[in-house]
Write a structure and sequence with these properties.
- The relative contact order is 0.17.
- Helix 1 packs across helix 15, helix 3 runs antiparallel to helix 4 and helix 3 packs parallel to helix 8.
- By secondary structure, the chain is of the alpha+beta class.
- Strand 10 and strand 11 form a beta hairpin.
- The chain has a 7-stranded antiparallel beta sheet. It has a 3-stranded antiparallel beta sheet with strand order 3-4-5, with no helix packed on it. A two-stranded antiparallel ribbon has the order 1-2.
- The protein is globular, with a radius of gyration of 27 Å.
- The protein is built from 19 helices and 12 strands.
- The N and C termini lie far apart (about 55 Å).
Length: about 575
Amino acid sequence: AAAEGKEGSDRINAINKARKMLVDDAQKEPGIKAEVAEMFIGKTWVLFKYRELTDVRLVYVPARAIGNFGGETDNWVWPRHTGDFAFLRAYVAPDGSPRGFNKENVPYKPKKFLKVNPDGVKENDFVFVLGYPGVTYRNRPSEFLKLHRDVRLPYTQQLFAGLIDEYEKLSASNPSWKLKLDPQIKSLANTEKNFRGKLVGFNKVDIIAQKEREEAELENFIASDPQLKAKYSGLMAKIKKEYEPLFKLTSLNTFGVVLSRFSTTYQLGELITEYMEAKKLPDDKRPNIFKEKNKSQLLATVDELFANHIYEADLAQFKVLITDASKRAEFSDVAALQKFFKGRGAVVEAEDFFRNKMSKSELMNKDYFLKALEMSPDVFEETNDPLVTVYREFDGEFAAYAELAKNAEGNLNALLADFIEVKKQFMERSFIPDANSTLRLTYGYIKGYAPADATYYKPFTTLSGVIEKGITGNPDYTLLPKIKELWQKKDYGRFKDEALDDLPVAILYNLDTTGGNSGSPVLDAWGRVIGLNFDRAFGATINDYAWSEDYSRSIGVDIRYVLWNVAKVGGAPHLLTEMGIN
């Protein structure tokens, strides 16, 4: 109702305003965190309320060589041998109410909890997952899939691959840089490989052609009914028209997001510019971080930015972005970038600009930055700082592109609501909303698969496989001496699988998971924990767009490997006793 009669970005703004009002009202109750999730785009929203426990403490975590065994080599890959798990304990006030850390807090005791099955599962056993999958695109039209296949996925994948290459070179040259850059490299690599897998999937699976056939049938269905024709005639053409500008705007917006997200230099310019704009407003009208009561939070953000700043990394990132943009037609008329597309070439021009404009700013000195925060907006404006000038130039143009994209998304929001409604009538059934980080259930079986000709993957890996990888010399396969010692003794205790004649490590199953399901419990037919989900197979990354029995496989750590590690490797059998396991 809030968006009725509104179009474009006005529709998006009205929806977001209504959602915020509902969330704010729900969160007036102490200890409650709320969200309004869009279930069917432009059509259905649901208010979710959660009891939030904020005092959460680490109890047990395995050694890195166990928890990250396989590293990037095995990311999105089967066979897998990663012991990816941790134990946490939530604490509450003595009366059971949620509150932050306090020495007087006591362990939380829920009314219900999941039990653990230390005997695990076998091939073809029924299993299910309860979790919070992030996002899928099953209910989107073919034009959306084309946008991802042709623009979003390849542009982001290539950009991230370039950033990873530069960051890895810097990490290898300086140990202190490696410590700061490793989290960024890991995050970039996770997305890069995921998007690469999706692109492979689009080439192998004819999802878009199938969508187009369904949409042609839908149009015939609309044309065959006078009432539907009067309401929905030309719907697919209208949808296609609204997607057209996004084929250019998606790359431009991604450029702006990546520049802001991965450049500390740019973030400093962004922070102080926005702070000065906020200071022109009454305190109660400012964004939260810029209110006087949150000044300590603002200063902590500044401290963190300077602590993580690596000049060479920001320079490398800027050069990667500009060089890549110089090769793409959609950037040819971006005014803020024209200076880099001529003269001595993009690489040289980008480096010269960064060194002589962005990094020459006095704001790159922390003491000066802190003094600048205390200036009035008028006094700060007179400094005519070059970093702020650069930020305003870039942000002004890229914010305009973002607004154009938002306008198209707003129009699509209304059109896709119609698309969903008439599709339901055509299919004569309801269908499942796309994932949106709300609680979902998926079920299936412990099951292997054949990803390629003459290849079959079994649904279990074992400790012997850990040993095999550990002797390859690959640094991602660092083998703990304790693991090897226990393997040599075949000291598996009660966790040995007789059918495998080994200790199970990871499991494979045909459940429907996606990003956000990492850490979701994998349960057996009696609702007992038999594993923890943490990944999908490389070929299954495409199931964000369409699930298939042929290629959709998810990966989890077998609970028997978890329990064995805690008891035998970590020497903490008392934790098993606490869980009721002998």
